[in-house]
Structures are given as structure tokens and as C-alpha cells.
Write a structure and sequence with these properties.
With 419 residues, the chain is of the alpha/beta class. Strands 1, 10, 11, 12, 13, 14, 15, 16 and 17 form a 9-stranded mixed sheet that branches. The protein has an 8-stranded parallel barrel with strand order 2-3-4-5-6-7-8-9, surrounded by 5 helices. Bound molecules: pyridoxal-5'-phosphate. The site of pyridoxal-5'-phosphate has 18 residues, from helix 10.
Length: 419
Amino acid sequence: MAEKKLPFTKEQVTELIKQYPTPFHIYDEAAIRQNARKLTKAFAWAPEFKEYFAVKATPNPHLLKVLREEGLGADCSSLPELILAEKAGMCGEEIILTSNDTPAIEFKKARELGAIINLDDISHIDYLDKHAGIPEMICFRYNPGPLRDGGNSIIGNPEDSKYGLTRKQLLDAYRIMQLRGVKRFGIHTMVISNELDPNYFIETANMMFDLIIEIYRTLDIKIEFVNFGGGIGVPYWPEQEPVDLDVVSQGIKKAYEAKIAANGLAPLKIAMECGRMITGPYGYLVSTVLHKKEIYKNYIGLDACMANLMRPALYGAYHHITVLGKEEWPLGYMYDVAGSLCENNDKFAINRKLPMVDIGDILVIHDAGAHGHAMGFNYNGKLRSSELMLKPDGSVELIRRAETIEDYFATLDFSGLEK
Ligand SMILES: Cc1ncc(COP(=O)(O)O)c(C=O)c1O
């Protein structure tokens, strides 16, 4: 099986652990920067291109600052995410609020920041008006429902998913906003998650360009930007290939010329809000083997658990594992790699072929840089681990300390219990 590369050696990690005990997540800043540049470069043909990094994937302000330096904005879906983007120095139309079932406070904060508001439902128009006022620019999220196939266990198929407006609602919503004085319009969709087929994104672009033409013809509204959402996949398996961004971009360009430019609707700005493909492959969960157990199967017990990375337990997702220092050893043993939660699905890998694993070995779980630490939780009193940044000069910076028991207890008042 093809091996996945690491940006650090066993010696470096062993040294690091003396200062920052496992488990921790570590992100490769140089690789993330390079990757962000690659995406922007692929769309250099567009009159304007902006990637709004999906903050939910890796909500750390230090990481957001790095991405901002690379020209990326932020896609936020909650008040804390809006605040994180603000703390990372972002404001105005560098931020888009794509949330659903949105509370008033999020609309208020988005308005205060001058962020783009992407409405998830036609009924949100009055709600927004009442609580935060109607801005000069508005965006709507389109859900094509039966008009588009696709979807998967992460996002659901369009018809079953709770997001966005139907085609009819969308046209009504733009008309309402037009009557209420909105001058600038965007359109958004997100119909897929973790997709590796470039054609899927090109088909989505075609669908959106057709819709933009229809909106123009029906309502005389010239859409200013289209946001294709996130969803570009990550090659979690070593034998998978990453999405060729140039193929995606060139396919979208062809559709743009045939539909947008040919109908006099240029310039139309292109936006995306990928999370996974930006940071996913460049984050690693580093963990130490605490125990080995042999019953009906052979188990490796880590000091990390699904509270550090729940994708395998939640979606049965594959995450490659490297046993540090044993990269060249034969994969002669089969293990279930487990955490310590009282949940039998707390396993990073089932029936995984690995080299012989010993107590004290360091295991690196790959592709944990998006929807990894972010999905953490405190079940079973598990404390959330630290996050580190491997800097381009090889130094390592702590960008989030590990939680302490005091943090865990911070919302409890113990007074009066001891009597
Ligand atoms: C609205 C929205 N935008 C963007 C993303 C990012 O998706 P991905 O990390 O798969 O690119 C998500 C993921 O949940 C989302 O819900």
C-alpha cells in the first residue's frame, strides 16, 4: 500500500512530546499556505475569486490569520465563528455568514461586521429585517432538491437535506429583496461533501450559471457573485488522488464563457467555501499507545479517543495511520486501534494492518486537519487536546493549549455540595 508522507520525523516528535504531551493536533503551516495559493491560482482567470475558508473545519484564529495572509476570507456559521474571524483580523465582505436555523444574534453580529449574509430560507427575510435590518447586499442558499442528484452520508442528498431554498422560493426571495431596496445580490449552493470527482463541481457550476441566467431574465437582477460552497474532497486513502483543481477550474471557466459571458452577465465573481481540502491533509493527530489488549481481537489503546477525531466513529471514515519509526516495517499485524471512551465505536481503525505495535509507540493519524479537533466533545469527561502549528522554519508554536480539569468544571458551581 502507498505510504503517506509526514512533515516531521520520529526524533522531532519525541522531542516535542516532552513539552506538549500527546494527544495533540499539529498543522503544517507551509503546506497549508502552499495549498491555499494553489486554489487561488487555479481560478486566476476569474474576474474575482475568493475562497471563504469554512471556519467550522478548523476554528483556530492563528490558522485563520495564516489563511487571511494568503488572501482567504471566512465562512462562518455561528456567533463564535464570526468572532473568531474578527479576532483573526477579518471584516466586511471578507466574511460570509452561511448558517441555518439562524438566531437573531448571529444576524446582528454579521451586520455589525459588514459581513455578507447568506440566507438559508425565505422566512428569514422578515426575521432578518426585524432583528438586524436588511443590508445592501444579500445572498441566498439554493437547494436544488430533486433537480440535482448526489449528496452522501455527510451532507445528505439534496432533497432530504434541510438547507437552502427551493427554486421557486429563490425567485420569490430575490423579488422580495429587490422590492425592499437591496442593490447587490449573491447566490450560493452546497450540494456535496468530500467529493473527489472534479466533474461534480463543474456540473454544479453549470447548474448555478443556468439559474443566474434565469434570475436575470425573470427579475432583471444581475447576480454579483456565485458561491459554490465547499465539499472538495480529501484523498483519505493513500491510493486516492487529490482533486485536480485545474480541471475543476478550467471546466468552470468553459461554462462561464458559454453561459455567463455569452449572456452579458460578466463580470461574475466566483467564490468557494472549502474547509476540508484547505487544511485536512495538513493536520495530524499525534497519540501514544497506552495499552495492548488481546481478546477475541487484538486492540491498541491510544491516549486519544473519538473526542479528538470522531470521523471514523461517525462516518466509518478511513484515516491512515503511521507508526512513527516503523514506516519501513512489514504490515504483519492486524489491530483495532481504539480510544478510551465507553463507546464501542470509539475506534480509529478496525482490522487495520500495521507493523507490530508496542506500548509507548507514537501513532500519527493522518488527514485530521479539518473537521478533526473541531468536532471534539467532552463526553466521558474527556478533555480537548492542544493544537500546534509547525512553522515554515521548523519551529513549533502552541496555538491552543490543552483543556484542564478546571476548564471542564468551569460551568459548574460546586458550592454547597459538600455538606
Ligand atoms: C455551508 C458549508 N460550507 C462549507 C462547508 C465546508 O465543507 P468542506 O469542509 O467539506 O469543504 C460546510 C461543511 O459542513 C458547510 O456546511
